[in-house]
């Protein structure tokens, strides 16, 4: 799945970076605002239930109950279908109301309507993904996501380019770009249907078992899924409120015009695209550990479940910390190279978001650990607390004229710090041994700090010899700094034992890589 993420991020860059430059800051702001509305409805329809389905399938197949697994999947499919139809219908019928009321941006109504079928399509695809993930088979999820992004890139960019050249106004061009999301969802669903029919037909079951009733399975699905879904909905609402609060406070409290506020929010959205990069590499780990921990708990092996949880958190920090530090120390060259026409505020926005990305990654992994161990209700408390912190910070900080849009990433940082602290407390109380703060945080933190100093120093030295007076020279200086940072971090994590040979065994061919790197 991580390999798939790398491919998807490359494809995503081929989509969002040129799209952001084509649409401009204000057009990209409209794109993001419509996408946030879509995210809320998608979360309402799907969040929590794939995790619940994965857990229930994992538990059934670990105990050899294939009839139970089949009925669980069937109940989940119809549940997802009904939820998807409801949410898609609301988006299609009431786009103007959603655009005006939720995000104070009437120009996004057409884009919201174009996105409405994607919710139903994603709901159905999520059912098939939850089934295969329950069997700890991550390949179909990865392939379907790559195909989804491929279709999104091809259709979205082609339509956006055509509509802009044809002279259509900005709202139509944005809607054309975002139609790629809907087409991508359809492609992913078709692939998952074909894969399921070929590999999970449940036609031949060696030892038939007596499954629970449909009502009992639905009750368990809702019992597990609803708390997770509520937490995810709150997160989506946080992003939606973030868009609405930013736009309203920049206009009402600071006094900016609608266009200026939209431009600032657009560059903030561009910084968020880069800010989301570390989390994209953590998400595959969060998906894969849910059935792994659930299987150990089904066998009453709490000690092994606790070890998997701590290892997952430590590895996630070993990935997230260097990426977050890199975004923070090289924020200005990164924004200048990726979005050369973006507003000058982009550099500092990315710096703050780079720091916040580390806490986002830990919150994602810690939330997955709690969900996998049957403590999904606790994650709802931390998400609500983080959301309240973000709303409060945004309301007051954005209204300060000298701060304005910078208040948004500050609110994001405070939000996820709150969530991380609470999740850490919950996890420490959930397992007998608790978590080792040294192993999870300190071991990857020192190599990341060394890497950050080297990255900034190398970029500074390169800029003395090759003045970054253009996009190409800036990119050259930045690439040299990143290359040096990667080498230094790789050496540091091995020498300081942030990642051990035992950890490497968790990945394919990891033992051979460990020997090659002389890890012990």
Notable features of this structure?
mainly alpha, 520 residues, 0% strand
Which stretches are poorly predicted, pLDDT < 50 over at least 5 residues? none
Helical segment count: 19
Radius of gyration based on Cα positions = 23 Å
Tertiary shape: globular
In terms of DSSP E residues, the strand content is under 5%
Q: Determine the mean pLDDT.
A: 83
Distance between the termini: 26 Å
Question: Can you characterise this structure?
Answer:
The chain is mainly alpha-helical and 520 residues long. The protein is 83% helix and 0% strand. The protein has 19 helices and no strands. The chain starts with a helix and ends with a helix. The mean pLDDT is 83.
């Amino acid at each position: 799945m991580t390999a798939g993420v790398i491919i998807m991020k490359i494809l995503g860059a081929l989509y969002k970076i040129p799209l952001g430059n084509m649409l401009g800051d204000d057009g990209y702001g409209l794109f993001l605002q419509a996408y946030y509305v879509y995210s809320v409805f998608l979360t309402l329809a799907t969040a929590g239930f794939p995790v619940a389905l994965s857990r229930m399938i994992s538990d059934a197949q670990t105990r050899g109950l294939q009839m139970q697994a089949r009925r669980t999947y069937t109940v989940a499919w119809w549940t997802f279908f009904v939820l998807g139809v409801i949410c898609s219908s609301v988006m299609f019928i009431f786009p103007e109301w959603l655009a005006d009321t939720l995000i104070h941006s009437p120009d996004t109504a057409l884009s919201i309507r174009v996105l409405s079928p994607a919710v139903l399509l994603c709901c159905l695809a999520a059912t098939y993904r939850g089934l295969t993930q329950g069997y700890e088979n991550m390949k179909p999820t990865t392939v379907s996501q790559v195909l989804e992004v491929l279709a999104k890139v091809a259709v979205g960019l082609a339509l956006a380019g055509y509509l802009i050249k044809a002279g259509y106004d900005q709202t139509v061009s944005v809607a054309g770009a975002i139609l790629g999301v809907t087409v991508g969802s359809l492609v992913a669903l078709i692939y998952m249907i074909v894969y399921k029919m070929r590999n999970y037909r449940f036609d031949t079951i060696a030892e038939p078992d007596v499954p629970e009733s449909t009502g009992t399975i639905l009750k368990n699905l809702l019992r597990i899924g609803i708390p997770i879904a509520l937490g995810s909905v709150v997160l989506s609402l946080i992003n939606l409120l973030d868009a609405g609060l930013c736009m309203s406070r920049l206009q009402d409290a600071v006094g900016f015009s609608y266009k200026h506020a939209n431009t600032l929010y657009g560059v903030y959205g561009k910084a968020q695209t880069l800010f989301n990069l570390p989390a994209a590499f953590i998400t595959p780990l969060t998906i894969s550990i849910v059935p792994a921990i659930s299987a150990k708990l089904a066998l009453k092996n709490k000690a092994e479940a606790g070890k998997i949880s701590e290892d997952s958190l430590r590895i996630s920090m070993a990935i997230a910390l260097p990426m977050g530090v890199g975004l923070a120390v090289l924020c200005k060259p990164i924004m200048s190279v990726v979005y050369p026409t973006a507003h000058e505020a982009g550099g500092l926005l990315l710096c703050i978001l780079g720091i916040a990305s580390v806490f986002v990654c830990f919150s994602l992994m810690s939330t997955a650990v709690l969900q996998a161990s049957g403590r999904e209700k606790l994650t709802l408390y931390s998400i609500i607390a983080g959301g309240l912190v973000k709303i409060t910070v945004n309301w007051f900080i954005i209204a300060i004229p000298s701060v304005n849009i910078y208040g948004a990433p500050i609110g994001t940082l405070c939000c996820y710090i709150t969530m991380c602290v609470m999740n850490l407390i919950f996890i420490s109380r959930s397992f007998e041994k608790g978590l080792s703060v040294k192993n999870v945080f300190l071991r990857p933190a020192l190599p990341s700090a060394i890497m950050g100093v080297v990255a900034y120093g190398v970029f500074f030295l390169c800029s003395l010899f090759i003045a970054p007076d253009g996009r190409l020279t800036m990119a050259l200086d930045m690439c040299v700094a990143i290359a040096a940072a990667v080498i230094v971090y790789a050496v540091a994590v091995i020498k300081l034992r942030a990642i051990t040979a035992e950890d490497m065994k968790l990945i394919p061919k990891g033992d051979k890589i460990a020997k090659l790197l002389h890890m012990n």
